[in-house]
Design a protein that fits this description.
Largest sheet of chain A: 7 strands, mixed
Structural class of chain B: mainly alpha
Largest interface: A-C, 60 and 52 residues
Order of helices and strands of chain A: HEHEHEHEEHEHHEHEHEEEHEHHHEE
Shape of chain A: globular
CATH topology of the largest domain in chain A: Rossmann fold
Chains: A alpha/beta (431), B mainly alpha (296), C mainly alpha (347)
Number of strands of chain A: 14
Oligomer: heterotrimer
CATH class of the largest domain in chain A: Alpha Beta
Strand order of the largest sheet of chain B: 1-2
Distance between the termini of chain A: 63 Å
Helix content of chain B: over 70%
Number of domains of chain A: 2
Largest sheet of chain B: 2 strands, antiparallel
Radius of gyration of chain B: 19 Å
Number of helices of chain B: 11
Radius of gyration of chain A: 23 Å
CATH superfamily of the largest domain in chain A: Response regulator
Number of strands of chain B: 2
Number of domains of chain B: 1
Helix content of chain A: 40-55%
CATH architecture of the largest domain in chain A: 3-Layer(aba) Sandwich
Strand content of chain B: under 5%
Number of helices of chain A: 13
Strand content of chain A: 15-25%
């Protein structure tokens, strides 16, 4: 009995430790900018919420790795990027990545957000649609700029302070439709349907404005079909429905666990651009083609991804830089890294650039999150990412979509083929 | 017509796997009255084990299956001995909470060991392509059906002809009588958890071969609950028939009703739950369950 | 050992009193004073955590009446919260109702939906009822997604913040007060509901359904009443949650929340008002602990490993807890109280 009692007391103590820790953390990491006067070193934080466990775990872990490696490089070289030798970081400023695991849980995000704000994080990041939806109003009210790994159309209505580095899903879809129409040779109007993930992210793409656009350029809209975010069974029914309704092109927002089984089942049902039943399937960018191709090989032929990053073997300065960072910091992961590593680099670069621009206007010790938004994020114009994104990033109060063009990539013969870029139409839902 | 037949065929193959998952759940529910929320997590762990043995270690399929079953047996024994045995005699809710905690631990373990990554092993499992006219069966599914049938047959034989199988059935009937007959109930409990883990892991490997494995795969456990309910808690045969029925119904509903709905449906996901409500209102003990008569 | 030594109940009123001695009253007021002065000495972060805890307490009180007192196990409580949340959200956002008018409607609506999904409880119990409530969770969320014209579907719904006259509950501190007032009211209501005729009927149903029916408890009415009351609490909590975020999405009401609400009840102790508070506070603090420990562990292992280790740790703490204290924190609290009241004697 005594043993049990002691064990119980011990576990209670562990819980009680939580209390002082909660208080202590807020205080220990008090905002350094308020510290003693100049020649002292300043630490500025970047980072934010990462859902390191849950459905987006692998994406976010890679993204966080990108953040860490890039920030380590910036602290060493004191410039923004190898191709920006003039964009220097003041010598007395070092950056540090601050992250918390929000488990994709909205209630957790709320308290983490406050914690990071108290800790002196002047930028934020949101790691998925649930978090973006929960935080976007708070961020806007608090005038804090955030980078995002989610790009739902809700971010555009009206623009708030969450900035994306890949196109909004509805724009991906419109660009996919533009591309498909260019290659359409038959006389009749192509029949279009949505085949998308069954959650807020996937359902966000199905909007009346997008349907109106597609109809206006000559599509016939057939309907929409939903696949679970993480399917436990092949989406046979949904695909058969497309077949039964004579759909020529379908598009959706899915992550790889959704798009891979879908394409696999398509092959099985003899559906595809060069199969017995002709249909082209496209996905918006969270279905990373750089992850899709190694897993699927030639089985994935014909699959289209809109709004993605450059492929790993791209020869632009951006991808070269990313490969160098990876080789220097994580040699064991070369060739096996998730593409969201690149997202981490871009997001960190955006946050650093925002902080750097704000520091030009306001002395570092007086910097506030609103300054970083006002003089930082809003003044990022044509930030070159070295070809990783389809165009350089430009942000402003009414422009939270960093890129202006959508890169269309297709799997051909088990390889990634760039099919060019198509303009963003900024299609969003009016509320 | 092709549309309809194809829906039936793919629903059938899916239903077999659901049934397999449901059997694990039923066995635990029957033997130890525990509502195992973590059953779907056994499936998820199974999928990852399949990836590890088949892809990382390049083992042949039979060896991978055996290795995964061995891991499952150890897992089942550990779970029972360490977490559930101390709860014997505690209220049912404490056991439910324990399985919630186990589910959390499994999710954490999967993220720790496999990075929470989406692992696919397309084309690693042996495939049999079957095509009748335009109707095709997912290649891995056919193997899945066979494995399911064999597993179920083995379980049936176990329950009918072996001593421990009989002990398990007796325990489900009346624990006290079993104890007074000199059977160790704890052994029966351990066995039920081992079986649940093994069938969970097997179905995980099958599902993993079909659509890949991810932490979110544990959601499939929820479908198993629906299967159990439809089939009736007391009946393993019922679980099989219910699994197949549900797999087909789910497909047909999604195929024919989805287009009629205002926002395009997604009915396949919640259809099992609509079935649950209907069953509960009209035939609460399921299609094949026994009606329990209660006395004070 | 309900009373300190030397205190005896001499009248019915004394026997019924919740706060029996002066010390208890003083402690209550000290606690309330501490609670309501929290904004003075704690930052936004602590206030956010406390606000969320307050909202969860309201919700779990409802679950406690339903599950802890009436033994109708529900793993769909987050779904019922969503009903209240969206009712209030749509009334305020689309029709321009005031929060104060929308809140009772939200509560009522959640209660009615609760009755609807409680209907199977007349025929079934245990495992079957658990299934019905799980079904409720998924069907409710699916319905919200279907009617995207009025609910916003996957894009969510922007809802206004509550206001009185010109004063808007926008700051963390003001919303904290709002939630805490509701949480106190909910605690007060929950404590007393179970002491009424209905509450005694619930307990009778929990302890033995057949016996209760034989005694003349109308199972049909009282089970549905339990569902209604339980879901009214959920509706209020859900409404408070979306008005706090000023945005409603279905992701705020995931299935795992329903599971964890039941978990909080079990950890705290079923069928005890204090147990609800113990359970919610301890599990929410455990959550926060996990958040903080993750980055600390990351010094040693990779960030993701650290995050998953802290998840495992949370599971393990609950497992250890269940093995050594399966009757909940409230029970342990009673033991502690009995121990210090009797000290230095053991009996």
């Amino acid at each position: 009995m005594a043993k049990i009692k002691w064990l119980f007391v011990a576990s209670l103590l562990i819980m009680l430790v939580a209390l002082p820790l909660l208080g202590a953390c807020g205080e220990e990491e008090a905002p350094p900018p308020e510290g003693p006067p100049p020649p002292v070193e300043y630490t500025l934080y970047v980072g934010g919420c990462f859902a390191l466990t849950g459905a987006y775990a692998e994406d976010m872990a890679a993204s966080l790795a990108g953040y860490e490696d890039y920030i380590a490089w910036v602290n060493e070289n004191k410039i923004l990027a190898p191709w920006y030798p003039d964009k220097t970081i003041p010598d007395n400023v070092t950056f540090e990545v601050l992250w918390r695991d929000d488990e994709l849980n909205v209630e957790k995000v709320l308290s983490i957000y406050e914690e990071l704000k108290d800790a002196g994080l002047m930028v934020e990041r949101v790691s998925g649609s649930p978090q973006a939806l929960a935080l976007m109003n708070l961020l806007n009210e608090d005038r804090i700029g955030a980078t995002s790994a989610a790009a739902g159309p809700y971010l555009l209505s009206p623009p708030k302070t969450i900035f994306t580095n890949y196109p909004i899903y509805t724009d991906d879809c419109a660009a996919f439709a533009d591309w498909f129409l260019e290659n359409w040779t038959e006389d009749r109007a192509p029949r279009f349907a949505f085949l998308t993930a069954d959650n807020a992210m996937g359902r966000g793409v199905v909007t009346d404005e997008l349907k109106a656009y597609l109809t206006s350029i000559g599509y016939e809209i057939v309907g929409e079909q939903y696949v679970p975010l993480v399917p436990t069974a092949p989406p046979t029914t949904q695909l058969l429905w497309l077949k039964d309704n004579g759909v020529d092109a379908c598009f959706g927002v899915m992550i790889n666990p959704g798009s891979q089984p879908t394409v696999k089942e398509m092959n099985n049902l003899n559906m595809g651009p060069d199969k017995a039943y002709k249909i082209t399937f496209g996905c918006a960018t969270p279905s990373h083609i750089q992850v899709f191709v190694p897993a699927m090989g030639e089985e994935g032929n014909g699959f289209v991804v809109a709004g993605g990053y450059a492929s790993w073997d791209d020869t632009g300065v951006g991808m070269t830089f990313a490969n160098q960072l990876l080789a220097a910091n994580r040699p064991d992961k070369v060739g096996a890294m998730h593409i969201m590593y690149v997202d981490g680099i871009i997001e960190a670069m955006t946050q650093v650039e925002a902080l750097r621009l704000a520091m030009l206007e306001v002395p570092v010790e007086e910097l506030t999150p609103a300054d970083v938004l006002e003089y930082g994020f809003y003044r990022i114009k044509s930030l070159d990412i070295g070809g990783i994104t389809s165009t350089p990033l430009t942000y402003g109060p009414a422009d939270i979509e960093g890129v202006d063009e959508v890169r269309i990539q297709q799997v051909q013969d088990g390889k990634i083929v760039d099919l060019g870029t198509y303009p963003c139409h900024h299609i969003y839902k009016h509320q | 017509m092709t549309f309809f037949l194809q829906l039936i065929v793919s629903g059938f193959s899916l239903g077999m796997v659901y049934a397999l998952i449901a059997i694990g759940f039923v066995i635990i529910l029957k033997c130890s009255k525990a509502f195992n929320i973590a059953q779907g997590h056994f499936v998820m762990i199974g999928g990852y084990l399949g990836f590890t043995f088949l892809v990382t270690f390049h083992l042949p399929v039979w060896a991978s299956l055996l290795a995964a079953i061995a891991v499952a047996i150890v897992m089942g024994l550990l779970i029972e001995r360490l977490t559930l045995r101390p709860l014997i005699g505690q209220p049912v809710l404490a056991v439910i909470m324990m399985t919630i905690a186990l589910a959390t631990v499994f999710e954490g373990l999967a993220t720790l060991i496999w990075g929470g990554e989406y692992k696919a092993y397309h084309g690693v499992l042996p495939t049999i392509t079957l095509r009748i006219g335009e109707i095709s069966v997912p290649p891995e599914m056919l193997i899945g059906i066979m494995v399911s049938v064999v597993t179920v047959a083995i379980l049936m034989l176990l329950f009918r002809y072996t001593k421990s199988g009989l002990a398990m059935r007796a325990t489900a009937e009346d624990e006290q009588v079993v104890q007074s007959a000199g059977i160790r109930v704890t052994t029966v409990y351990a066995l039920s958890w081992v079986i649940a883990c093994v069938v969970g892991v097997i179905s995980g490997i099958i599902l993993g071969g079909v659509s890949g494995v991810m932490v979110g795969m544990s959601q499939v456990g929820l479908k198993a609950f629906a299967v159990v309910l439809l089939g009736g808690v007391n009946s393993i045969g019922g679980a099989i028939i219910a699994g197949i029925t549900l797999g087909m119904l789910e497909n047909i509903a999604a195929g024919y009703l989805d287009p009629l709905l205002p926002a395009g449906g997604g009915l396949a996901n919640i259809f099992p739950f609509i079935v649950i409500i209907i069953v509960l209102v009209f035939r609460p003990h399921g299609l094949f369950g026994l009606v329990e008569i209660e006395r004070i | 050992m309900a009373l300190p030594s030397g205190t005896f109940n001499q009248s019915y009123a004394q026997d019924m009193a919740i706060f029996r001695t002066k010390t208890q009253w003083i402690l209550l007021f000290a606690f309330l004073a501490f609670l309501f002065t929290c904004p003075l000495y704690s930052g936004d972060r602590i206030l956010t955590i406390l606000t969320i805890i307050g909202i969860t307490v309201i919700s779990v009180h409802g679950l406690n009446i339903l599950t802890g007192y009436c033994n109708q196990i529900s793993i769909g409580h987050a779904g019922f919260m969503a009903v209240g949340a969206y009712t209030s959200g749509m009334l305020t956002a689309h029709l321009g109702w005031s929060f104060w008018a929308a809140l009772p409607c939200a509560a009522l609506m959640a209660g009615l939906v609760g009755i609807l999904f409680g209907l199977p409880s007349l025929k079934v119990k245990g495992f079957y009822l658990i299934m019905a409530t799980i079904a409720a969770q998924f069907i409710i969320i699916w319905f919200i997604l279907q009617f995207r014209n009025i609910t916003g579907g996957g894009d969510g719904l922007a809802v206004p913040r509550p206001e009185i006259g010109d004063f808007v509950f926008k700051s963390k501190a003001s919303y904290f007060y709002l939630v805490m007032i509701f949480a106190c009211l909910a605690t007060f209501a929950a404590t007393n509901i179970v002491r009424t005729r209905a509450g005694r009927a619930f307990i009778a149903i929990r302890d033995n359904e057949l016996a209760a029916e034989v005694m003349g408890v109308n199972l049909w009415a009282y089970k549905l009443l339990a569902f209604f009351i339980g879901c009214v609490f959920a509706g209020v909590a859900g409404a408070l949650l979306v008005h706090y975020v000023a945005f409603a999405t279905v992701d705020q009401f995931p299935f795992m929340n329903s599971v964890w609400y039941l978990g909080m009840l079990i950890v705290g102790g079923m069928g005890s008002t204090a147990g609800v508070i113990f359970g919610v506070v301890s599990l929410k603090l455990l959550d926060e602990l996990v958040v903080i420990v993750g980055p600390m562990l990351a010094v040693v292992v990779s960030p993701q490993a650290a995050a998953s280790l802290s998840l495992i740790m949370r599971g393990l703490i609950i497992i250890i807890f269940l093995i050594f204290e399966p009757r909940g924190l409230a029970h342990r609290w009673q033991m502690v109280k009995a121990y210090y009241r009797l000290w230095p004697f053991s009996h």
